[in-house]
Amino acid sequence: MCGIVGIVGTRPVAPLIVDALKRLEYRGYDSAGVATVEQGVLDRRRAEGKLVNLQERLDSSPLSGTIGIGHTRWATHGAPIEVNAHPHFSSGVAVVHNGIIENFRELRKNLEADGFEFSSQTDTEVVAHLVEKGLRDGLSPEDAAHQAIQQLRGAFALAVMFDSDDNLIVAARSGPPLAIGHGEGEMYLGSDAVALAPFTNRITYLEDGDWAIIRRNDLAIFDTSGQTVSRQQQTSVGSALMVDKGNHRHFMIKEIYEQPEVIGHTLANYVDFNAEKIALRDMGDTQNPLEFSKLDRLNITACGTAYLAGYLSKYWFERYARLPVDIDVASEFRYREVPLSENGLSLFISQSGETADTLAGLKYCEESGQRLAAIVNVRESTIARSSHNVFPTLAGPEIGVASTKAFTCQLSVLASLAIGAGVQRGHIDEAQEKELVRALAETPRYANEVLKLEDEIKELAHSLANKEHVLYLGRDTNYPLAMEGALKLKELSYIHAEAYAAGELKHGPIALVDEEMPIVVIAPHDRIFEKTVSNMQEVAARGGNIILITDPKGAAEVGMDEAKVIVMPEMPEIITPIVYSLPIQMLAYHTAVHMGTDVDQPRNLAKSVTVE
Ligand code: F6R
User: Fold this and answer.
1) Is the CB of 384 under 6 A from ligand 1?
2) Distance 592 CA to ligand 1 centre (A)
3) Choice from 301, 351, 357 to test ligand 1 binding pocket (greatest atom count within 8 A of CB)
4) From the CB of 491, is ligand 1 less than 6 Å away?
């Protein structure tokens, strides 16, 4: 994940910015840079690789100036080389940015037609040129930045600085978080409060859609409608630690909110957004890359939520790549004496990379001479170190015991792998690949949209609180997602919850349905929507209370009388399971909060289960 730092200060800021960037290192990055303004001149130092390289540049060629912005970049658009490192300039404008600007291609084309020359392959550079264009059109720096921000689509956070004003940074948030720190005659900006901890613990968090004008002794924040808004200043308690809760009540909800950002970063590791192609980055044995065309079987093993990500991907691998998949919970797989195919791949999914059962499954496959691949969130973990091919999720540290962002990042990797496998195996042509990649690129934006439904979901959650049982229904990829919904609800709220494939209900479980039974139905308006709705009507006829998660088309067909409806945006089918994970997580979270359970550390559970 990229990291942003900015300081409008009273002392030389370049060393302070590098210090703050070091505190964001945990997010992962592959290049870094810093820019300052000194006597009306904008200057920058950038370097590939770790911050020590940037430090060396600064040692041999220091930057003065009491205002500056800095960045650690995790490559999304364009290779991790110096020309793509931030800050990006356009004449007297400097920009750092985190996230993905979805419409950058179109913006770039227009800017090129207007004579702007691009020096990088990034999506970020369009922002610098758009601001510059506004200045040329006679706008003030603040207005030039604002009009540029208004033209951007996607999930992003950014900071803009000008050579013409050494007392101004404009910041904007549309998705990824931004924290503003208040000092004595200085103001700071960071991707989180941890970055700003050496300077201040007085923090104001921008809300989604906000943009801000930051000066040494002044902060003005505006919302999407352009109205001045006041956002509460708070004391950041956890900022001495490596991670804190930001302005959230629990780590879990903070991690839910991080999803647009971390999904974007994870996808960027496996997708070339410029070329609109899958480009899998394997962090394992690069001499020995994975060739999906040579595989005859994929065998996936994992536990809990990671298992459900694997289960869901079975639909993708079989549909898009025609690759047969076996999926097992690790505690069963390890003793099942499974015969493994000689040309098979064994894939292990684990947030921690240390789960004992999953590791035991891996050892079994290793002894059988299988090729081993891993999807892990902790890159140095045992499962990663023991695998031939390693595909990390870039979710950042997940502190809440109940997995949220690791799950959607696992799905992001799995969707990319399945499409990549489909291309390699000749089942997806170039045009289909482009279409699927474009859909993936939109995931962070849709996820961000869905976060705005939180208040509505919270209200629905209150109707689940204190129920004895809840059923979850779905078909196709929404079936494993229903299982994940049930798992989240039971582990957080201790309400008994079960998931069924919607079509299976009538073969037994429908006997459970009465007026006391809430039923959560996950059904975007897809090929099998009608079938799921028929199953839903079977339970409605027996008095079940339905919460339907669907899109506007689905909502229009069902009508609001039959069910309480969470209306999701309409989106491409491939990304629905990733984006529909969010309402499911929020539903479980708010039910548990309402019931007063320990959301971040539910009873009897541990984050990394290293025992059998
Ligand atoms: C549920 C949850 C667990 C984990 C499981 C596997 O919210 O977090 O079910 O998914 O214990 O853990 P990892 O992914 O670390 O192997």
Assistant:
1) no
2) 18
3) 351
4) yes
Annotated catalytic residue 2:
yes
Query: Which atom of ligand 1 sits closest to the CA of residue 304?
Result: 9
| Token pair 């290779």: residue | 79
User: End-to-end alpha-carbon separation of the chain, Å?
Assistant: 33
Query: Residue 612 domain-assigned?
Result: no
Q: What's the CA-to-centroid distance between 192 and ligand 1, angstroms?
A: 26
User: Per the structure block, which two tokens stand in for 319?
Assistant: 């549909």
C-alpha of residue 380 to centroid of ligand 1, in Å: 17
Q: What is the pLDDT of residues 226-258, one digit of tens each?
A: 899 999 998 875 444 456 777 889 999 999 999
User: Looking at the domain assignment, is residue 607 inside a domain?
Assistant: no
Atom of ligand 1 nearest to the CA of 383: 16
Same domain, 146 and 284: no
The residue out of 240, 261, 284 marking a domain boundary is 240
> 209 CA distance to ligand 1 centroid (A)?
33
The tokens describing 399, both together, are: 């502190």
Enclosing domain of residue 589: 453-598
* Statement to judge: residues 159 and 13 lie in one domain: yes
Residue 45 lies in a domain: yes
User: What are 512-544's pLDDT values in tens digits?
Assistant: 888 889 999 999 999 999 999 888 888 888 888
Domain count within the chain: 3
Q: Reduce the DSSP state of residue 171 to 3 states and report it.
A: strand
Helices (H), 350-429: 356-367, 382-385, 405-424
CA distance 66 to 72: 20
